[in-house]
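Subject: Sanity check before I submit

Could someone independently write out the structure tokens for this chain? I want to compare against mine line by line before I put it in a report. The sequence has 415 residues.
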Amino acid sequence: MQSRHAVLSPANLLFPLALVLFEFSVYIANDMVQPAMLMVTREFLVDASWVPAAMTAFLIGGALLPWLTGPLSDRIGRRPVLLGGVVYFTLACLATWWVNSIESFMLLRVLQGVGLCFINAVGYAAVQEAFEEKAAVKVTALMANVALIAPLVGPLAGAALVEVAPWRSCFVVIAALSGLSLVGLWWKMPETVQAGADKTPLLRMGGAYLALLRDSRFVQSALCIPLLALPLMGWIALSPVLLVKDLGMSTMAYGLMQLPVFGGLIAGNLALVFLADRWPLGRSVFVGMLPIVGGLSLMLAGVLFAEEPVWLMVAGMSLMTFGEGMSFGVLYRFALMASDIAKGTVSAGMSMLSMAGYAVGIEAFRLAYVAGGMAGFAVASVCTALLFVVLARRTVPQAMAERAEPVGELAAQSA
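---
Independent answer below. Compare away.
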């Protein structure tokens, strides 16, 4: 174990960079594959309704094991659990080469999604432990920017790759990136917990999770994260259908439409890094509510009233993602610190709630699209954003008050 870093430097950023390369590999396993899903459905002779199901299956996998990976890392150390997870994910990607039906493909998507269980429940917990609070928020925002290269370039890279190679080759590329991250983590990842310090038997860890679920403050803080991210997750899952199938765009044009959307998210994260030392921790969440709700309302107006809705849809989603970038790193820190239980367990609880929320939410977005087309998707996005605002206005002021941060004026301004 080592002392926490209060100042960011190239030397102490090497571990987060190695971790974010693994995160990038896991995320691109979703984003790079989405442009290929229409080819997958054609090869296995099924209809296009299976396209968003691939993302749902991936997220279900992400909800399967955090209950174990987090507490296990509390007990034996973050480092061995994370390294083992990277090896597992690499092998799961390589196995895609041999799938021969849509059912086996979806099963493997679930198994690949388990890779998500090692990012938040183990990797991000280690980052929060390795850095002081404001430094941790800035590192989280910087990591998010690197990770966002996945949804930014993933659709473009996937669309370009499937033009010249079989869709299965996407997973070979992903496995190679994951293997590279393994080398970096083996070299630079510190151990942030004392192995064996947590003596709670793994068979009794259900009690810790029950205590977390009974803690309304923790549950509300943790649920802010999927509510904040669901409009973007729904966009990632359904935009191949919205843009390619409904609006007749090419797969390359679809990929280009992702650039401003994820560019907004990167800009929001950079704004958070710049403002973290200048604003009270939490103010950016209140400020970010305005572009979140305003952007999604603009998207809804475009779908309902514009002759060519794609431009207002993309502009609205870009505003929304800017607000998400300003908020995510702070909300993650607030949720992690909302309970005094061991942070591996808390992080695992957050991950399970998030992954379950994403899976349920994306399925709800799919049903909204089936019922109402593009308008159904836009209405679902606005409703989710409003739920986020209501919940965040309950949890953020309390977290700020514990840090002696002024919240009254900010909360009033966000009303």
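---
OP: Matches mine. For the report I'm noting this point. Residues 14-193+205-414 form a domain with the Growth Hormone; Chain: A; fold (CATH 1.20.1250.20).
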